[in-house]
Amino acid sequence: MTMEFTWIDIPTVNDPRGNLAILEKGVIPFDFKRVFYLFDVPSGSSRGGHALKTTNQLLIPISGSFDVVLKNGSDTQTMALNSPTKGLLIPTMTWREMHHFSAGAVCLVLASKTYQEEDYIRDWNTFTAVTGQR
Which one from 50, 86, 99, 100 is the annotated catalytic residue? Predict the structure, then answer.
């Protein structure tokens, strides 16, 4: 099973007074229904640890850096997110874990659906059973 994810280049207007990143229809390959962000993640802490059945997410490191580990049940890939001009598109049924948050890191997440607990798979063994990847 091939690991699926996509890097999204976020259009940016560079200006000596400060740069501007633009998120709008056409840049993001889905209509987002929910926006949230992670911040003040304590040193050594991890976030994620779940998969989403029907929701796509775009993760953007607004400030600082962190690693995202993606798993499909048989393959694992780790990506370093460290530029606010690049977002990581995570498709449905992809296990994700986030580690190594730098001081002051902020992760912006755009989701294709609103929060629904039943969309989450929070147990690794359940995930591998559902995906058939033991």
Answer: 50
